[in-house]
Amino acid sequence: MFPSEERSEPRRECLVGWRGWQVMQPGILATTGTVWLPGEKAEAVCIRSQERVPHDHCICGIYSFKDASQVFSQHFSSQPLLGEIWIWGKVIECAAGYKAEFAYPKKFYATQEMLKPKGQITQGLIEYMAFRYEVELEVIPDDHPLVCESPEARRMKELEKQAAAEAARVWRMTQRRRS
Fold first, then answer.
1. Is 140 in the same domain as 160?
2. CA atoms within 13 Å, Cβ hemisphere of 34
3. Number of domains into which the chain is organized
């Protein structure tokens, strides 16, 4: 569910990005420098400038990735909750994602591994978070392609195969010259 019109911008103006969050007790999301309150848009601020944020020349803004595999590969081990976000207002497109003025969670994703009891983060807490933020929670299997292999990992494997093939080719040429 998208936050109500009174508290945020209309959906038609939104893009979708991907990001991870830390979970604070009692059921509040946090990212570096931003607390995400249920039912309220997150708003980027800049301590260096009075200009509308984000800026091209500054690190201010609410960051998100364009692709789900990027957030899973970048944040899987450090962020207990991953998901999609609505982003709107002033948005700057970057190489891997976006910097936005406003954002709100769209959908939460958790793997079976994430839902195993670890300290204070439990399946019940993550389900409660989805309820509080009025978003869907999708549990994906640990062997899902998003979790197992990101595009970067696939590219690295392909480069390793190419390097091995090239090394084998050079070795064969060397062996032919010796004979």
1. no
2. 23
3. 2
pLDDT digits (tens, 9 = 90+) for 97-132: 999 999 999 999 887 776 666 656 677 888 888 999
Domain identity same for 154 and 128: no
**Same domain? 170 vs 127:** no
Global pTM reads 0.70
- Cα angle vertex 136, ends 131, 139, to 5°? 110
Do 34 and 82 share a domain, yes or no? Answer: yes
Residues 51 and 139 in one domain: yes
Between CA 112 and CA 115 the distance in angstroms is 5
Phi, psi of 135 (to 5 degrees): -130, 160
Rounded-to-integer distance, Cα 64 and Cα 11, Å: 17
Contact 10, 68 (CB under 8 A): no
